[in-house]
Amino acid sequence: MNIIVIVKHVPDLVEELEIAEDGKDLNRDFLKFVVNEFDDQALEQALLLKEKGGGTITAVALDAPEIDQTLFTCLAKGADKAVKIVGDLEGRVTSHAAAHMLADALKAMSHDLILTGVQSAEDLDGQVGPLLATYLGEPHVSVVTGVEARGQMVVVRQEYAGGVTGEFEVDLPAVLGIQAAPQPPRYAPISRVRATMKEKKLVEIQAAAADGAGLNVRQMVRPQVASHAEMIEGNTDTVVERIVGIMAERGLMNG
Amino acid sequence: MPVKGVKQAPIVVEKDSVTVRGIELKGQWNRMFEPRVIDDYDLTHLDRVAALSGGESIEFCYQCGKCVPVCPVDVVGNYGPRKIVRKLQLGVDLTEDADLWLCTTCMNCLRVCPKEVDMIKIMPAVREQAILDGKFVPPELQKTFENIARYGNPQGESPRKRADWAKEAGVPVPIMASVKRPVDVLLYVGSYPSYHPRGKDAARAMARVLTALGVDFAILGHEEKEDGDSVRLAGEKGLYETLADSTIKTLAKYRFNRIVVFGPHEYNAFKNVYPKFAAENGLAWDYAILHYTQFLAERLDQLTPLLKKPIEITTTFHDPCYLGRHNGEYDAPRRLLAAIPGVTLVEMGRSRENGYCCGGGGGGMWLDSFAGGHQKMRLSERRVQEAVEYGASLLSVCCPYEVSRFEDGVKSTGNDGKLIVRDIIEMIDEAMRAE
Amino acid sequence: MGNVLVVVEQLNGKTGEITFEMLGKGRELASALGGELHALVIGGQADELGIADKVWVMGDGALAHYTSANHKAALVAAISAISPRVTLIGNTSIGMDLAAGASAATGIPLIAYCNALRVEGGQVVGTSQIYGGKVLAEVAPEDGACIVSVLAGAFPASAGRSDKTPVLETLAPPALDNRVRFVRLIEPEAADVDITKAAVVVSVGRGIQSADNIELADGLADALGGVVGASRPVTDAGWLPKSRQVGKSGLRVKPKLYLALGISGAPEHLEGMKDSGLIIAINQDASAPIFDVAHYGVVGDLFEIVPALTEKIKG
């Protein structure tokens, strides 16, 4: 099976986020980027499918700060090829535009399955998976927690609330939005990533022009710190005393 | 037995039958049992370890077993270098065995080994191989590698917050990039004093003590990163090299007379490991490196008069493996303790050269859950019990890994209220706070 | 025309709470836009939807089981037949398939992860919660119509219920897209405990650090006569079974007391517990979003506080 895995960089939420002066985007000058955690799951799922049934994996990403490192990491983990889509990609790229550019590039790449993370932290205008699938005219399933290859189709599990799961047969080619792979994403040792950087090259493809999402961002704000939690301060004894007091007041101390 | 690292074919001296003075003696009468099979083990896995760079000395082991009783892991489980070698002889693949991740590289085995089987080189080499081969790596360790690679600290905290602890130090803590002049002491803080709540207590104490002594010091602030020595010993050599390269280049930008480190692991990295890396990579590395206890012990004349407030307590001192056994410094911390009025020092049975291990070295700091599944109790818990057995009310330490490890151990062994844990720098800071 | 269309979400024949939350908000938007409130049922039943002015029922047995391909085709057909100004879809697993899929197919813009909606000068303005809840983006469609995927719990469900009888109208289903075929629904394995029924839930998050430390929460839960719950990272790591997971892909709980230990409070988690009677959170990070929904908060080391708290409660 030939699998394409789409990976994306998103702002690292470990860092403080600042809003740009015009109030319409993040201040991107000092942002650090990190691979979307769900895309990491998608890659792991692809690697497991390849290990079981053979085939190839191609990692595809839109150009972004530090994206080369991430694509080389995909190669070091076991992807066969890495493609970087380059072009006018400054600032926040909407999901609609990203899906258009990806669809344009992927039409020319033969594939059986496209895997991507179910969502990302900046999907303001929707998730890339279903957008891409629709532009490509392929079927799509979101929130996938299990994929099994079976001839010209895959059997997938879609997770709903409360632990209920739906099982579906999906004809190929198809796009899947991966929530979680059956095992945690594997580790790529730094020395192997460095060796990969010396041995392999990224393939660059020019991005097609793409329309935006049809939305005007009026403003971005940090949520008001309407923190209604009353903070309890002091040493451990004071804190414990106070918590027990609060619970006792509400009759919660007798089980 | 190998000769110069090369295995020799066995010389077979037992014969099935010999004739002595005309009487045929069948070999079987001389044997209690069936002919012994002494050389048909599958030695593939042992050979593979011996073939690794750093793994050669595994073949020197002649199974004397001196290493086992001194191994801190064996005290709380079933472990020890002799047993590992034996398992390898019996066909166990160490790259797939839980034993691979339990060694804390404390070096007590090498201290007593007549054959100099060097687990401090063997274990990291085999771990590196396991990681490169994509074998099982405990997820908590993997997460730590990812954090360090991305953020430069094992906790996965923002690098920009690395110097945040200094805001509450109560004294100015200059940062190299802003002082724009040479300083006397570059204080290398390390990740735990920078981010861990109890580590930060010690970092602030350090800033106050250095200030009180009038030391001209500065820190690297957000330019500082994990030193990488424990990463190297845990088997991620590539990541260690990246960190070493970055730290060497960062330090090269500044002028200072000496580096004072908080942690014995940084001390070992800067003193013993970085020089070789720098030489191999054409980088400059020629610094005077001091552990903070050494730096302060050199200034006892100046320090002692400032220690006015007595701390009436019986303490025992835990020798950090990487300050003591690995680098031979046993006295500086003890001299500082002796200078604090009121403090009585009792020595534990396992101290100095035979000091016990807190379990944090060699990557153990990032393997607590995994190791917990293979041990009766944590090494830190065993150590806490020992401190209590010897009548100490305070366990003093001088390695940033240890405060949190031992404080957890105090709670989990039910010794809350009986024993407190303090970094020596916190005690000095406390003793300076005269009324 | 300013009609609002709510896409009814049904699984296992049961209408999801999110549907009523959207119907309530939809009613308000429809009045503001001077239009009607419509509901769309794809392959299901039209009970309980009395608040809508009109309920469109599409489909037959073939659409009875949800599949992303068929239901997306059905929704696209319904949108072109009805031409609503605003289409509301729950931001659930099903909604993720449908909302973005329909947006791509119809060219109507999508406001995702929406937790606030209003009409301003005749224009719909939505607030999208992005970057893990750290940023709110206020957006409006460039042209008139929009699709909105609504976060669960953003609007009250009570406003979406009514005893009235709506007008029913049938819509012809589109050609079937059988590339995705329903096989079966798998119910979760019988849980060891039912966290949705407990009066006290002691929940642990990433901050608990390791499987070993779960026993701290066990001890506290025992002392309080409660059960231990978890956020997604903890169940993903296998430290607790999936049946203990609180949040969007887990269970919604509403205990009298919810103790959040080392839980930062991702929106997906908050969704599952924010209606609890009393929420007390302990976390190292003072800026953790959990403190926005908690009644009481402690910035501190749970490894210190929890054992002490357990001791104190045991007396």
Describe the structure in your own words.
The complex is a heterotrimer of chains A (255), B (435) and C (315). Chain A has 255 residues and is an alpha/beta fold. Chain A has one domain: HUPs (Rossmann fold). Helices cover 29% and strands 29% of the residues of chain A. Chain A contains six helices and 13 strands. The mean pLDDT of chain A is 92. Chain B has three domains: 34-132, Orthogonal Bundle (Fumarate Reductase Iron-sulfur Protein, Chain B, domain 2); 149-297, no CATH class; 302-431, 3-Layer(aba) Sandwich (Rossmann fold). Chain B is globular, with a radius of gyration of 25 Å. Chain B starts with 16 loop residues before the first strand and ends with a helix. Chain B has 20 helices and ten strands. In chain B, the strands form three sheets. In chain B, strands 4-3-5-6 form a four-stranded parallel beta sheet. A four-stranded parallel beta sheet of chain B has the order 8-7-9-10, with helices on both faces. Chain C folds into two domains: 4-171, HUPs (Rossmann fold, 3-Layer(aba) Sandwich), CATH 3.40.50.620; 195-314, TPP-binding domain (Rossmann fold, 3-Layer(aba) Sandwich). Helix content of chain C is 26%, strand content 29%. Chain C has helices spanning 17-33, 68-82, 93-106, 214-224, 232-236, 267-270, 290-293, 302-314; strands at 4-7, 10-11, 14-15, 37-42, 54-58, 86-90, 110-120, 123-130, 135-141, 146-150, 167-171, 180-186, 200-204, 227-230, 257-261, 278-283, 296-299. In chain C, the strands form three sheets. Chain C has a nine-stranded mixed beta sheet, with helices on both faces. Chains in contact: A-B, A-C, B-C. At the A-C interface, helix 3, helix 4, strand 7, strand 8 and strand 9 of A face helix 2, helix 3, strand 7, strand 8 and strand 9 of C.
